[in-house]
Amino acid sequence: MPRRYHEKLKKLHAFTNFVLIDPEMTKASHQHSGNEHGNCGFRMFNMDNVEFPILVSVPHAGREYPDTVHEYLRIAPRDLIRLEDRYADRLVQPLIAQGIPTIIATRARAWIDLNRSVDELDPEMVLGQGGSRATSASAKMRGGLGLIPRRLIQCGDIWKRPFSAEDIQGRIDAQHDPYHRTIATYLGELREKFGSALLIDVHSMPPLASIAGVQPNIVVGDRFGQSAGSIFAEILMERLKQAGVTAALNHPYPGDYILRRHGNVRNNIHAIQIEVDRSLYLDSDLLEPASQLGSTASLLSGLIWSLIEVIGGTSLPMAAE
Ligand SMILES: [Zn+2]
Questions:
Q1: Upstream peptide bond of 178 is cis (omega within 30 degrees of 0)
Q2: What CATH code is assigned to 3-311?
Q3: Which residues sit with Cβ closer than 5 angstroms to ligand 1, an ion?
Q4: Of 232, 242, 268, 293, whose CB neighbour count within 10 A is largest?
């Protein structure tokens, strides 16, 4: 590894204990605006700063709801919050401040779920296609959480009526497709430059029930080793243990489409998911940021920096993976 790279890593690492929360995310390197389909629904940070072979993605924290959502909504707008990885974008603010390349969806997951494939579109969601079969009837889609979320537990159907095929295709073209193409292109460039690349997909989850008396506060997912070299999950689990944080690996969240699409271990492109318990950084209603947000964001930064050390080659060689 070049000496310059090593020093940069050391210098930046010194900042990981500082937390800089910038709710307006003023460091956006690209901003997009436009109408419902002209807005790509995500923001990118530090993407020009190619110092480390990593990219952080936050696909479910969007809080922007286009007018169509309200027009078609059957349930109370407040219930849609349950679909959000509420304020998970705030957890990565220190990393953005430290120059880490990050892509964050700003459109709500209710609009389109970036962690589903376009094949996971429930035909019942599409006007005039109610009787046809889904191209890919995944369990999540059948459970109401396909490409366009359809049902919520305790609330039932989210929408009053299906959307037009053109509307849904517009969402795919304007948001889903650009989000994934941006990630794929960027990881490809990192792989080219560094020989390997790592995508860290950040989510948050409702508090989990205890399993054998233990309640995991973090769930690490690598699709049982299919989306990333096992070293990354091992490092995360070890660091979490050292930090006294209860964690689970691949249960109940192994990672979904984002990991499936972008992880390519044989080509040295790795993708790993980190799910953070919302009670670690939100208030008791799981609605607004709480005082622990800073320490939880610091924890996440520390975890991600430990991965940067591995992928950057400062801790362990990747060649044997
Ligand atoms: Zn999520």
A1: no
A2: 3.40.630.40
A3: 60, 85, 203
A4: 232
